[in-house]
Specification:
Oligomer: single chain
Number of strands: 17
CATH superfamily of the largest domain: FAD/NAD(P)-binding domain
Number of helices: 9
Number of domains: 2
Distance between the termini: 34 Å
Bound molecules: flavin-adenine dinucleotide
CATH class of the largest domain: Alpha Beta
Strand content: 25-35%
Amino acid sequence: MIQKTVDVVIIGGGPGGLNAALVLGRSRRSVVLIDAAHPRNEVTYESHGFLTRDGIKPFELRELAHEQMKKYSNVTLIRGVVKDVLKEKQQFKTMTETEDVIFSRKVIFATGLKEDIPSIEGLQDVYGKTVFSCPYCDAWEHRDQPIVLIGNTKQLIHQIRLIYNWSKDLIVATNGPAMLNQKEKLELNDHNIRLIETPIEKFKSQNSMLEHVVFTDGEMIHRKAGFIINTGATQASMLPQKLGVKLNEKHAFETQEHGKTKVSGLFIIGDAAKRFTGLIGAASEGYETAVFLNKELVEEDW
Ligand SMILES: Cc1cc2nc3c(=O)[nH]c(=O)nc-3n(C[C@H](O)[C@H](O)[C@H](O)COP(=O)(O)OP(=O)(O)OC[C@H]3O[C@@H](n4cnc5c(N)ncnc54)[C@H](O)[C@@H]3O)c2cc1C
């Protein structure tokens, strides 16, 4: 059981929280970072699009960060789950499930989102392995392969055009009547893209490698990869709401510039604030917020 007082508590040790810890550590701030270690992308084998780290395993990125952080003795990393945060006059009191209690002047939430994928048989087995939600993260590896795009939103036609950028061997499965007008349906025809509106029964795979999508009318199509539109991710932690920060219509926490919130001393960064920052975007927000927050502390102490 740990009990201490520090300048900043960071909740969440993904790229957002870790980069904030690094910059605050280098700013001579005492920092405690508490992380439950269940990042949004934990189901994937590889992460892409982060300069110098393209193809890295999600936890390898974190291990490298932990290793580099060792030289900053003013930064403490704790593996655990924060169960509550209270604002008491000028300080925050952060409590973990294992009864650690940390008092701090500022708190950064970098708690991310958790995926909420549709409950279709077999989807869990392939999600993050050969079926994904973010083409910028994973479509390159499946370029020119037989791909299925799964989902149905008002933005459907734009998603179809986007995935077609990586593979022209594309089938769209809307799992019900498609939200496409007649002109858009003709567009698919012109591009040789098949539209299947019949509900999906299951995904068939071998060792997480997608092989077939089976529909309720018995049809089975061969596909090697898939993309899902709108996986319905939810906040990993609702504690900011308890502290007075509202969720906007996209179910992201309302923030201002530099991750500030309307609660003085409370910051929110990464996916929790933007719904999707990507790894490098979250890391960048961690840097920006740390710089701003350190400046606030400098001014307060002058
Ligand atoms: C399948 C999939 C693949 C992806 N692939 C890529 C990719 O290739 N490239 C890319 O750039 N992006 C990718 N992403 C997106 C990327 O994962 C996120 O944008 C990024 O992780 C956001 O970083 P973050 O720091 O905001 O949150 P996260 O990385 O999700 O970290 C949040 C951390 O906070 C912890 N936490 C939450 N609540 C608490 C609590 N109460 N107490 C303590 N800790 C808590 C969580 O356990 C987690 O460790 C992918 C996403 C998915 C779903």
